[in-house]
Amino acid sequence: MSLKEKIVSSYIAFEDHLEDDSPIHELRNEAIKTFETNGFPTKKEEAWKYTSLNSLLKNDYSILPRKADHTIEFKDVKQYFLHDIDTYKIVFIDGVYSSFLSETTHDAVDVCLLSSALSKSKYKSVIEAYFNKAAKQDSLTSLNTAFAKEGAYIHIPKHKEVEKPIEIINFSTGNEAAILLQPRNLIVVGENAHVQIIERHQNLSNNEVLTNSVTEIFAEKRAFVDYYKIQTDNKSASLIDNTFLSQERDSNCNVHTFSFGGKLTRNNLNFFQNGEHCESTLKGITILEDKQHVDHNTLVHHIAPNCESHQDYKGIFDERSTGVFNGKIVVEKDAQKIDAFQQNNNILISDKATINSKPQLEIFADDVKCSHGCTIGQLDEDALFYMRSRGIGTKEARALLMYAFANNVLESVKIPELKRRINKLIADKIGVSLGFEL
Amino acid sequence: MLKIKNLHARVEDKNILKGIDLNVNAGEVHAIMGPNGSGKSTLASVIAGKEEFEMQKGEITFMDEDISEMDPEERAHKGIFLSFQYPIEIPGVSVTNFIKTAINETRKSKGLEDMPAGKMLKMIKEKADLLEIDRKFLSRSLNEGFSGGEKKRNEIFQMAMLEPKLAILDETDSGLDIDALKVVANGVNKLKSADNAVVVITHYQRLLDYIVPDFVHVLMNGKIVKSGTKELAYELEEKGYDWIKEELV
């Protein structure tokens, strides 16, 4: 039985356990049909030309989450949290909520679980207004929608500034030989509200994990959203991240993606600017080695006029690693006076590493400023000699250049502790410890 | 201190240095002058260990040690400093962080601990004052967006911090107005002692009014064709290089 067949038949079992009046039951039925019709994407599709899921689809994944037999001690996973106390935490273990490791709140803001939001009547209106409204109806998103049961539910009412960052962490324990996880996050940020969110996925064993995650983020008028994706998972974990941001007028949304780990990572990051004067920032640092693969597939859809978008992705590829950057900007006919900028710079450390970089601009308005640039190069030999002539060894000189290369992406990280951590992750990844932080 | 014998070097298939002999002793200032393309910058790069130049023949010893096979960083650790004609821009690394790294890497090569932060700061302040460098300048990205004069001043600042035994100043005067030239030259003179040596590479005699050489060498077509004292520099300024060519014929 293929994975697709297994998933479709699992849906029948899954459906039996659902409550009949679930507000999204009909959505699920449609979604599983979409998945059944389209299946997993293949390299024949333009958007998947450089990323093949084939090797991942051979595993016999456990599809419906079960509570792990053993619990995780906080001390064992402490390193994956930004702070012990200074953050809200929504933690899942093998797809099941861990109240023990989490710190949620209903005090002025809702930082809690999608499962409660789906089942409790007080959230019904929010679910009806937002759930699955920004997500594309493609095959993988639909697969998630069909089984969507658990994930983070964050609702920030208007004018509310969340005083500490929110961490969403998905652990997998190796309880199953291979597991398919499908977290579903819904985040609604009200008018003039501010929020900072950090998301990560962490495999705690060497068993195979495939995560097909969907996150919908709604930024209302003047809302401010800062979202950080930390992709440092181990090499038996793969991630397909589908994130959709729907922005209303004067809102400001930033997504930083730090991709240093994992076996295969695909980031489908989609921004929709529905009102005037929106700002969107998409930044990423990718540092890979071995046979790691990261594919950044971004879309910025400019629907309203007078908006801005900035994309800046840096990649450093060593050994046989492969990277893809496919950045699409669509400017609708009415979206005049758009300022859209896209930059993708890459350094290939090894002869065997590959990067495929592809900007895609579809512009239907006539008064816009759109620019894109892409570079692929090696480390600058003259710069290396300059540093070495000052006594800095080759390894440190290379590291310093790589640091410097990635630096302007780090500059916009607004949580100091996170910036420090990312700095350290980069140093560790490059394999040196420099005596300072940039 | 530095002894070069019959040095031949080439880049790709082009022979550039064709038999250089040069001895620099502690306490001395040498000037190397010569027309464009004579091999001045190549000589500087070969001494500093740039790998794209292939040394075909000859010897280079520094403090009685053969350095011809050494990496650039090893030569730097031994006390050789090259001030670049065109300093490289390194966005994202501040002047301070760069020099801290350079100093601590050099200390590490000698088995020393990192320089204590307080001592480092004091030294940075002292040397920045010597070269009339604004404190704000030190937190800027290395050479990025610097004017020609700022780049050269920053080179000498790094030299002051690293305290080399042998400093090679490659066209340090180019791009400097007279005030900046004085500041830079004053910095170099203050650092000069009986234990170190300076090799000044220049087109023009102008810098040599401020950094006064003990010896002047004329490099032409990959060879030192004439050596003398500082008076030779005045003669070159006045008459150009053609008379030497004629003399050689």
From TrEMBL, chain A:
The family line of this record is:
Belongs to the iron-sulfur cluster assembly SufBD family.
Q: Where is the SUF system FeS cluster assembly SufBD N-terminal domain?
A: 9-168
Q: Tell me any Pfam family this protein matches.
A: SUFBD_core
Q: Which residues form the SUF system FeS cluster assembly SufBD core domain?
A: 177-405
Set out the biological process GO terms recorded for this chain's protein. Answer: iron-sulfur cluster assembly
Q: What is this protein called?
A: Fe-S cluster assembly protein SufD
UniProtKB/TrEMBL annotation, chain B:
Q: Which UniProt keywords apply?
A: ATP-binding, Nucleotide-binding
Residue ranges of domain ABC transporter in the record: 2-246
The record ties this protein, via SMART domains, to: AAA
What molecular function terms (GO) are annotated for this protein? ATP binding; ATP hydrolysis activity
Key word Nucleotide-binding present:
yes
Pfam families under this entry?
A: ABC_tran
Which CDD domains does the protein's record reference? ABC_FeS_Assembly
Q: Which PROSITE patterns match?
A: ABC_TRANSPORTER_2
Annotated transmembrane regions: none
What family, per the record?
A: Belongs to the ABC transporter superfamily. Ycf16 family.
Q: What is this protein called?
A: Fe-S cluster assembly ATPase SufC
User: Which species expresses this protein natively?
Assistant: Cochleicola gelatinilyticus
